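Session log. Operator J.P. requested a structure for one protein chain; no other inputs attached. Running the standard single-chain path with token output.
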Amino acid sequence: MQSEQTQRLQKLTPLEVEEQQLNLDNLKNIRGLANDSGQQAGIFNSMSRSLGPLSTDEQAILDSAKSQAQANFRQGKFDVSAYNEAVAKIAQDRIGRESKEMGPREDARYEDIQAKLAQQLPVPKEDQAWAKGYEKRKTLGPVIMAGAAGGRQQSTQNFDVQKDTFKRYDTALDADQRLSRMEASYGKAVNGDQQAMLSLLTDHIGMTLGLQKGARITKDILNEAQQSQPWLAQLGAKFDSRGFLSGVTLGKDQMAQMLDLGYEARDRSWQSAQDATQLYGVAPPKGAQSIFSKRKVGEKPALTGALPNGNGRQIDKATAQQFYQAVGGDPAKARQLATQNGWKF
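Structure written below.
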């Protein structure tokens, strides 16, 4: 058994090992929800708030559905559909019970009272009051149904908002992890390591084109990337017998531009996640802020670390050329990077 696992691991490329690790890291976020009773309470309470006070049987139904949702969290799936269905069932059952209480005998009593009133016969005040209450209950059914439907719709909206916010944080975490790998790959790739070049390109395409986790680059994927980013056209690519990219040769300008775009994509994804928290009022996952705070927006240490610091001096042509090359030939980004490194223009 152990030898079989060893053989499988040996067949994995370094990129596949990295992608499997990324998948495991992303699962931790959702699984962490299974141990966070506070976040769970916020989700479940928002979905069942419209029901009001619960009977013992109703609470048991919700508890069972909650257990299913918690099991999904532990498996890394953000799925609370069972709880949502339980809320809907309780509301429908209440409407059904209300209808049964308005049975044939009450119908007959109401008709008898109405007949007496029509014939101008004496009807006790208690019976008249009962008849009015009966009329209200008869019309209350549709109101209850509409209210329950509205409550379920609000619960669904709350769930969608929570899911959208968590998805943005997952995207931001993925971008942060990809960027860390890109920085490591860049340091090796600029010294001629072709495996590092392949890793850098894979993460670049993953961030810019949304390459699915664990997927490998094919000719079609590379062609799509080159069409949307013409500066990728001039690279040497090798494909294996299955059509997957197995090797690549990148220029220093291309590598610098990939990493520069990686920094920007990471900053945008985290900003999107924080915007969702402020807009929807959904608390971020625990630990998200500490991860985000490790980097400062706009800083690009792997690109600027080897570049000269100006300390307030006027930049010269040769130094400006270094920054120009470091960002892949983009004048605006080169100026921004040089300014961050203390150069004046």
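Operator note: The chain is about 70% helix and 5% strand.
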